[in-house]
Amino acid sequence: MSKRTEIAQLLAEPKIGEKVTVMGWVRAFRSNRFIALNDGTGMKNVQVVIDFENMDEEILKKINFHACLKVVGNLQESQGAGQSVEIIADEVEILGSSDPDQYPLQPKRQTMEFLRDKAHLRMRTNTFSAVFRIRHAVAFAVHKYFNDNGYYYLHTPIVTGSDAEGAGEMFQVTTLDLNNLPRTEDGKIDFKEDFFGKATNLTVSGQLQAEIGALAMGKVYTFGPTFRAENSHTTRHLSEFWMIEPEVAFFDIFDDMDLAEDFVKYLINYVLDNYPDDLAFLDQRIQQEEKNMPKEKRRPMGLVEMLRFVVDNDFERITYSEAINILRNSKPFKKGRFEFEPTWGADLQAEHERFLVEKKFKKPVIVRDYPKDIKAFYMRMNDDDKTVAAMDVLFPFIGEVIGGSQREERIDILKSRMADMDIPEEELWWYLDLRNFGGAPHAGFGLGFERMVLFITGMTNIRDVIPFPRAPKTAEF
Ligand code: 4AD
Ligand code: MG
């Protein structure tokens, strides 16, 4: 391939009068004369002007939506409005043609549902290339934040023998022949015959192993894929999603909340500072989409405005018990508008979380000290013997983005919690060892990566912020 100039570079430092070579996909073709070309290096297209009267008929016919071109020409100041420079093409070569009668996408607005079925092509649209550039930016910012703050990146296993969350929503990993399973004498499946010599699953969280890291290296984090076989068909759940889990020795629940707030603000700021074009495009897209909606369905502010609002304000911090009180005294509860009654002891429902965040406080809220019976075995028991030192960070539109806790470091209490929840000690002997030998108070949390990207991009369905979504009955690409 001959040398090419990347379009982002060309637009950032235009060298007027120079001969340039660019390659990219046709985003639009107007008046048989103006091509908007994009190579993925940024939101902005470069305008290519062709002399169609002197152009080879065959090539002209092939300049269609999303065809791939190589263009050689002179960079000039643009005569038209909308762009400052343009390329006056000397040569146009078709690298990959795209028959408009066959091509599944059209050069017009298409629904997200439609594009989801075309995941191999949707990244060529403005919306999805912006989303996935921002997804990259958030991932990069995660590593930068932790590296700059002295955390070590720990790779935790994807195949595991334990159920970290105790929710039992795991995908089994096996090489056993499902049509001919080995059995023990009492008729159960004999997992000793399985690949790892025991029953194994895809991990739901790297936390338990991250605790091993924290109790040796002080500050660690994981960032990896996690898998949950919950049969949720919501706009907030995936079966395969990525989670970021910092774990820190000598942290209590308050340190944990401070870290969570500082961390998510950093991620948002990073995107605001470095990806303004993509954000501006997504902001406009939402406004377009909401134009025909009734006022009460529209978002209270624009995307960028909302991101700024979140980074500029302290998150509200309340206890679960306070949250229940607020909800029970709220207008929607008194008027019977909640589907689920807010009762002490029951999990907060999405409608409750949204009320707290969007109506009551109008900013992110951190709820802590949840009833022990609705939380995992490893969370530290509070002095009231009823609640545990757990915290959830709730965001507008999204609900829970972070779930975390201070961990139970007291071996007796941990063992009795495990017994209460029917978790066999043999399965987690190494986890108990951490408390038996040089244990320490520690805390951590898990940030749902896609939920964060969902918030920053203003998209409405989590399946549109991961390149190839996995959800019940969905694993095509
Ligand atoms: O609250 P969760 O279940 O917490 C844990 O797994 C802890 N082990 C984390 C820790 O303390 N180290 O999950 C953490 C976050 C949630 O707040 C949510 O943002 C996201 O992971 N999450 C999901 N995201 C997409 N699809 C799903 N099915 C998700 N389930 C949880
Ligand atoms: Mg949670």
Describe the structure.
The strands form three sheets. Strands 6-10-11-16-15-14-13-12 form an eight-stranded mixed sheet, sandwiched between helices. The protein has a five-stranded mixed β-barrel with strand order 1-2-3-5-4. The protein is built from 14 helices and 16 strands. Helix content is 31%, strand content 22%. It folds into two domains: 7-103, OB fold (Dihydrolipoamide Acetyltransferase, E2P) (Beta Barrel); 124-169 and 204-464, BirA Bifunctional Protein, domain 2, CATH 3.30.930. The two termini are 29 Å apart. The protein is globular and about 85 Å long. It has 477 residues and is of the alpha+beta class.
Shape: globular
Please, what is the CATH homologous superfamily of the largest domain? Bira Bifunctional Protein, Domain 2
Overall CATH architecture of the largest domain: 2-Layer Sandwich
Counting copies of identical and different chains, the oligomeric state is: single chain
Question: Could you give the distance between the termini?
Answer: 29 Å
Supply the CATH class of the largest domain: Alpha Beta
- Average pLDDT: 95
Instruction: Decide which structural class fits the backbone.
Output: alpha+beta
